[in-house]
Amino acid sequence: MPQFKQRQFLDFEKPVKELFEQLAQIKEIAEKNPTVDYTSSIQQLEQSLLERRKEITKHLTPWQQVQLSRHPDRPYTNAYIKRMLTDYIEFFGDRNVRDDKAIVGGFGLLDGETVMIIGHQKGINTKMRQLRNFGMANPEGYRKALRLMRLAEKFNKPVITFIDTPGAFPGAEAEERGQGEAIARNIYEMMRLKVPVICVIIGEGASGGALGIGVGDKVLMLQNTWYTVISPENCSSILWRSWEKKEVAAEQLKLTSTDMKSFGLVDEVVEEPYGGAHWNYEEAAESLKQVLVRLLKELKKIPAEERINNRINKYSKMGFWEEVEE
Amino acid sequence: MQHEEDFDANLAGEDKSSEEAKSRWFKRIKKGITTSTAEKKEAPDGLWMKCPNCKYTCTVLELKENLFVCPKCNYHHRIGSHEYFNILFDNQEYEELFDNVRSVDFLQFKDLKPYNKRLEEAYSKTGLNDSLSVGAGKLHGHDLVICCSDFNFIGGSLGSVMGEKIAKAVDYAIEHQSPLMIISKSGGARMMESAFSLMQLAKTSGKLSQLSDAKLPYISLCTDPTYGGTTASFAMLGDVNIAEPGAMIGFAGPRVIKETIKKDLPAGFQSSEFLMDHGFLDCIVDRKELKDKLAALLTLFKS
């Protein structure tokens, strides 16, 4: 987790900011004066900090939840991989054009068993953010993901994907190389993968860019994430013809994890540490790991063909329509 | 920079467009349009059509006989699902399927207008029940199920109804051992249905994989325009991908791309010909040759 001096706070995190700084100061003083006992005041502060963190995530507006999902200190795919898997080996390239740094993936051991893990990766500083293209993949990123999924299928290893993208990259070259086709192909092939597939929204889940690695037997959302057909900003610009309505768009889109669970569009919501995953990477990774291990166990019991049928049937039920009498 | 032609000045035999030059031969006495709306003389709607590409004007009847393709420049006018059905099915005979599937405003979405109102307006404007119609019939004797989108209905957007109709059409095709064709003409996913519309990409792709398992051909025809969620699902998944000439096909819209790369896009970017060049289409077919081409294809799949 980032050190105190680099720690960044969102507007609505102000109440915790003061406490956080006080705590850091006291810890600093305590270090300098080993003769004085600061334990009780530190404990007291830590307790109230925890309470404040709890408070903050209790009453978030949808837009604030979107902001939290984009928190600059939030853990990204590699942060989870590092904490959840052992013996991880990363694989690169789509064997066609190049290696897309916005999607990472490889084999690793989860609870002692090999899994293929694939996810969007955002950069952790300015330089890396550019290298990772802000988590916006090009077609070769989706094709790398598909290559890795097929590799997993060949050796009968489950696939886990982590989704965190503001959308697929809308560049000219992305179009030349078939961004639409790449995403369509992934969606289609993920429907038919013979191995268990679990997808987790760990940050932003925007549109086709998310769904391109997001079709699975189980789809989970971390608590402070969002998932829908378009980002609130772009929705505002298209439907309201203004960039100013993003808060309203976020409300109207019903994009929060709670909403998505209630619609049955995702299977489970995984709780984050109080205040958001950025407060404790270890805790966030551990609670997600437990859910993944449990679900993989369940999914492995189902025969492949049945699992695929269930998957297709699950998606076939999605949507709302009525059939009127003619 | 070229100056815009000044017709008034030219008529007066002047090169300059000065006020003086104009006023010498023509003076407007009354300002603005004085004819009241009731007295306005108008040509009846729909009698004449002007080609948006070459400005050639012809009667609708003439255009219709030419399958809504401009006789002069071969521009393919945007047409609706029933026009396609009439062009493609033998003797214009087909059975319309699943027309009783309707949208429900489950989210009570409201942008500048409530979604419900948008739907109502679209119903009365188009006389259609949603942005996709399904027809089953014969094409040169071959069985064929065609799903065709209507751009007039909320931009041909992909929502729950389109998803469900395609799902039902796939089931129908499998049951009747018939090939399936989807004609796309859509701006993308229907935002007013939020994540439900996104999930239609997965739903339709999943159903198409069942068609594939049944070893039935799936032909995708991309027409102008085919964008967003449509491109990122069934439009690009055909066993054979076809497009009409000059259609715009892509994932992200040109405006968004332009804003991203901060450069102008080359002429022909995202056109059918561009996609053909980059390997995403099997052929570009003129509307007038479409029926014969499809029949030839279907024969090859069968024999």
The CATH architecture of chain B = Alpha-Beta Complex
Shape of chain B: globular
CATH class of the largest domain in chain A: Alpha Beta
Question: What's the rounded overall pLDDT mean of chain B?
Answer: 88
How many strands, which pairing sense, and closed or not: the largest β-sheet of chain B? 7 strands, mixed
Return the domain count of chain B.
1
CATH topology of the largest domain in chain A: 2-enoyl-CoA Hydratase, Chain A, domain 1
Give the beta-strand count of chain B: 10
State the helix count of chain B.
Answer: 10
Strand-residue proportion of chain A: 15-25%
Low-confidence stretches of chain A: none
Would you tell me which CATH topology of chain B applies? 2-enoyl-CoA Hydratase, Chain A, domain 1
Span from first to last CA of chain B?
Answer: 60 Å
Q: Kindly report how far apart the N and C termini of chain A lie.
A: 61 Å
Which terms summarize this structure?
heterodimer, A: 326 residues, alpha/beta, 2-enoyl-CoA Hydratase, Chain A, domain 1, 2 domains, 8-stranded mixed β-sheet, 14 helices, 48% helix, 16% strand, globular, B: 303 residues, 7-stranded mixed β-sheet, two-stranded antiparallel sheet, 17% strand, disordered N terminus
Tell me about this structure.
The complex is a heterodimer of chains A (326) and B (303). Chain A is α/β, with parallel strands linked by helices and 326 residues long. Chain A folds into two domains: 11-59; 66-316, 2-enoyl-CoA Hydratase, Chain A, domain 1 (Alpha-Beta Complex), CATH 3.90.226.10. In chain A, 48% of the residues lie in helices and 16% in strands. Chain A contains 14 helices and nine strands. Chain A has helices at 14-32, 39-58, 62-69, 77-84, 126-131, 139-154, 172-176, 179-192, 207-211, 232-239, 246-253, 257-262, 281-300, 304-316; strands spanning 86-90, 103-110, 113-120, 159-165, 197-206, 218-222, 226-228, 268-270, 321-323. In chain A, strands 1, 2, 3, 4, 5, 6, 7 and 8 form an eight-stranded mixed beta sheet that branches. The longest helix of chain A has 20 residues, at 39-58. The model of chain A has no long low-confidence stretch (mean pLDDT 94). Chain B is α/β, with parallel strands linked by helices. Chain B has one domain (78-302): 2-enoyl-CoA Hydratase, Chain A, domain 1, CATH 3.90.226. Chain B contains ten helices and ten strands. Chain B has helices at 7-11, 19-23, 60-65, 81-88, 115-126, 160-175, 194-213, 254-261, 272-277, 287-302; strands at 48-50, 57-59, 94-97, 101-103, 132-139, 142-149, 180-186, 218-226, 240-243, 283-284. In chain B, strands 3-5-6-7-8-9-10 form a seven-stranded mixed beta sheet, with helices on both faces. The longest helix of chain B has 20 residues, at 194-213. Chain B is globular and about 75 Å long. Chain B starts with 6 loop residues before the first helix and ends with a helix. Chains A and B meet through helix 7, helix 8, helix 9, helix 10 and helix 11 of A and strand 4, helix 6, helix 7 and helix 8 of B.
